[in-house]
Amino acid sequence: MPAKSQKQANLFKLVRGVQKGSISPKKVSLQVRKMAKSIKPSSVKDFTKVKEIVNRLKESEYSLSKFKKVENKSFDALLSENNGLPFDNKELLIFQSKQNGFTGFGKTPFLHNKNKNEMTAEVFSNNSAKKFVFKKLIDVKDESVNKYACFIEKSFPDNNKKEVFYTLSNNFIENEISEKTKMLGDFINRINSYGI
Questions:
Q1: Based on CB atoms within 10 Å of each CB, which residue in 34, 37, 52, 112 is the most buried?
Q2: Which of 1, 81, 73, 91 is nearest to 40 (CA)?
Q3: pLDDT of 10 above 80
Q4: For the whole model, what pTM was predicted?
């Protein structure tokens, strides 16, 4: 039986992580530890997914309206106030697999800046330059989950005008490898398809 809400699913993902040993019991609440001991792992696994939400998100997870335009803040300032977490090898492979055809131009390499925990791609077309910077962030409302972020700077060399945008993925649990890699692949595809 799937969870009734995303919040309930996130709780059971923590319980599942404790049961599997991928999350230390010291990092979770007493309630989560008790649930991990008293509920069968097969039952916990059923509650880690929200079927209704998953189906709805497939249709409208990202749309052009999800891009937020940033006013009165430079691109560099926006990046520096959003500290990223390191990307793991599986995430780096997803970026590598998405290089061909990103923004519709042959091969667009993603450059990994380990010091800043960023993946960057630059595209020049239609009298504008676009810089895409991807980061993995901790969700400010719930520190047990993460989000991917894409920050975009669009500049127009003819008039020195710059526009800054960002968009965020849905939440995911760091230890759920298949969930986060699918989320990242879909996030890159959606950004690519809208070509801001």
A1: 112
A2: 1
A3: no
A4: 0.65
